[in-house]
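thought: user wants a sequence for this fold. calling inverse folding tool.
action: design(structure=
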């Protein structure tokens, strides 16, 4: 089956959506599918799928040959034009709920895709409430449990223990300013790993509330992220409640590190008993959850939970779904 992913920021960013496209595409090729990823940047490593140039975030590329299934990943006008193309050419169109519980995925649902892919059971229930006429299927994001392992030598953050880590884009949706305020109420150190428009503001806030002896902000290449997770005592993810998933939580769990995340149905479903949830808007509550997480003997619960979200399992579910289409 010929499958085309539209991933405009592929080759430009290494975020959750781009990771999802790379991991699923690689495995779908291994399962016998013909996959092309249309993206705006050059691939950072050798791939077993074809890569073609996507010149616009909003317009479709000139396809070398018409795909059987079209999967846009950037939402909004890209989803609308993808649906129009699929209807005109009588091809299948999947919408994947990477955008979250908001306007973007509502728009995806009202393009009436052949299937809407929800990343959690909660998102699937939400999608059916938004548009009950659209078929939904749950296929979660995954993690590479061999790459993200507790056996990886820890990265040297050179901060006192216990160490709280967060890996995220430095944007308002991630609410890292609330995390800094929470950690300031503990004796812990904090490392923020990522990039984004709020880096200067977050650095200034961290230096003011925690000081250089307990705070560090930096960007790391993808191949050093496994070492960042094993350096931490607890991983924190105070994201906005409408975010659709959070692959970094699985990466931390795979390194057998407990996670403290936002108290919302999506994060609670993902973590189950492998972490704690609290309201980041309450620094006292989030600080208490961080302290509790550090004191708790988690055993292998985090890594066991991560093993239930592998990319191999996700790709297998896509293969089954595509075969039925």
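)
observation: tool returned 325 residues.
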């Amino acid at each position: 089956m010929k499958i085309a992913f539209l991933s405009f920021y592929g080759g430009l960013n290494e975020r959750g959506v781009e990771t999802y496209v790379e991991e699923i595409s690689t495995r779908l090729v291994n399962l016998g599918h013909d996959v092309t990823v249309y993206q705006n940047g050059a691939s950072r490593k050798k791939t077993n799928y074809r890569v073609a140039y996507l010149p616009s975030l909003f317009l479709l590329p000139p396809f070398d040959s018409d795909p059987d299934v079209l999967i846009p990943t950037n939402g909004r006008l890209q989803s609308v034009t993808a649906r129009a193309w699929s209807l005109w050419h009588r091809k299948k169109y999947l919408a994947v709920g990477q955008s979250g519980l908001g306007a973007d995925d509502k728009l995806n649902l009202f393009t009436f895709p052949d299937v809407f892919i929800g990343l959690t059971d909660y998102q699937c229930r939400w999608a059916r409430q938004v548009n009950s006429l659209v078929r939904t299927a749950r296929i979660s994001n995954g993690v590479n449990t061999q790459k993200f392992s507790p056996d990886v030598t820890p990265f040297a953050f050179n901060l006192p223990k216990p160490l709280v880590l967060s890996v995220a884009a430095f944007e308002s949706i991630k609410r890292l300013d609330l995390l800094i305020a929470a950690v300031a109420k503990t004796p812990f150190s904090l490392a923020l790993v990522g990039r984004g428009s709020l880096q200067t503001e977050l650095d200034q806030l961290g230096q003011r509330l925690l000081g250089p002896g307990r705070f560090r902000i930096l960007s790391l290449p993808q191949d050093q992220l496994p070492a960042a997770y094993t350096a931490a005592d607890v991983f924190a993810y105070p994201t906005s409640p409408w975010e659709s998933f959070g692959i970094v939580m699985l990466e931390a769990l795979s390194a057998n590190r407990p996670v403290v995340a936002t108290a919302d149905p999506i994060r609670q479903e993902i973590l189950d008993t492998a972490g704690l949830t609290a309201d980041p808007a309450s620094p006292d509550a989030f600080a208490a959850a961080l302290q509790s997480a550090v004191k708790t003997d988690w055993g292998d619960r985090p890594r066991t939970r991560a093993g239930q979200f592998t990319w191999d399992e996700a790709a297998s579910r896509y293969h089954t779904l595509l075969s039925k289409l």
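thought: summarizing for user.
answer: Here is the designed sequence. The first strand starts at residue 2 and ends at 7.
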